[in-house]
Amino acid sequence: MKVHEHLMTDAESLSNPSISVVICTWNRSGLLRETLEQMTLLDVPANTAWEVIVVNNNCSDDTDVVLAEYTSKLPLVRLFESTPGKSFAANLAVREAKGEYIVWTDDDVLVDPNWLKAYTAAFITWPEASLFAGAIDPWFEGSPPGWLERVFDQVANAYAALDYGPTGFAMSRDSYPYGANMALKRSAHLEEPYDTRLGPRPNSGIRGEEMMMARRLLARGAIGRWVPEARVRHFIPIKRQTLDYLQEYFLGSGEVLGMVGEKSAVGHLAFGRPLWLWKEALISEIGYRFGRIFQSPEKWIGSFKAANVARGRLKTYESSTAS
Fold it and tell me: Rounded to an integer, what distance in angstroms lies between the CA atom of residue 284 and that of residue 66?
């Protein structure tokens, strides 16, 4: 790859849509190095202006050392966001990006060499689309425990694993992307920034910033496209191959729903929360506890998820919406 043929300053003389690849990072310099090294293998289409924006979200490790290693290997743009929280870092990148399209990935991802080529082809084929999503395959550290292998399809969202199949299609609110592998028109992103209440930050399990942003766009009538040829691999460390991690994730999912999810008429309240939600949390928890004794993982994992999502919703549910 000849980096200097693709600098953003040459955008006016090039014909393909210009692209800003964005990574937000916080204290994962080792994995970031692998991510950036893999990007040096990208087959960037000819006549494409591009940049790689890395936002340092107040890292305390040697992230800056790693970035310095790649300033001559990639068209790298370094930004710094001092406010903790991925959504703050991501919104900064959107404001500073020079590309017509922003292609998102993470600091623990290995992109396929044809990744940008696939997205570029999609941008040209569907110029009316504002949102694009690609496949995300799991990249396990070591071998996952047997129970996780058996239930992985049911908890894939907790690991940002995604595959809607080999055929492209128009996306809906039920087929949203994950931030490890998605792309948007920058103009659409400026209209729908990330909700800074959501997203990874120190001491918080709340996620959902990409999902909620994508759902808002699609609800407004934006066109989304599934791009199966744009593939990446997402790292799953051993510490996340546990029920403790899944509990944290699904509790966080529930907290997101409690804050910004759709509310329906709820009837009677207890402690400012709807009775049906207390009931759902209790019944699901009982189902999980008994299931761990008498059922296979494929059976009890559903109750485990439901119990923790309900508990998360109870934590953040806004009683003022109840009637």
Answer: 45
Instruction: State how far the Cα of 224 lies from the Cα of 138, in Å rounded to an integer.
Output: 23
pTM, rounded to two decimals? 0.89
Question: Is the Cβ–Cβ distance between 122 and 177 less than 8 Å?
Answer: no
Name, in order, each residue with C-beta under 8 angstroms of 257's C-beta and a sequence gap of 6 or more. Answer: 309, 312, 313
Closest CA to 22 of 130, 160, 184: 184
Cα 36 off chain centre by? 18
In this structure, the strands spanning 101-106 and 131-140 are: unpaired
Residue 217 amino acid letter: L
Check: CB of residue 37 under 8 Å from CB of residue 7: no
Structure tokens at 13: 């003389």
- Pairwise CA distance, residues 254 & 251, whole Å: 5
Of 121, 91, 168, the C-alpha closest to 19 is 121
Higher pLDDT, 194 or 203: 194
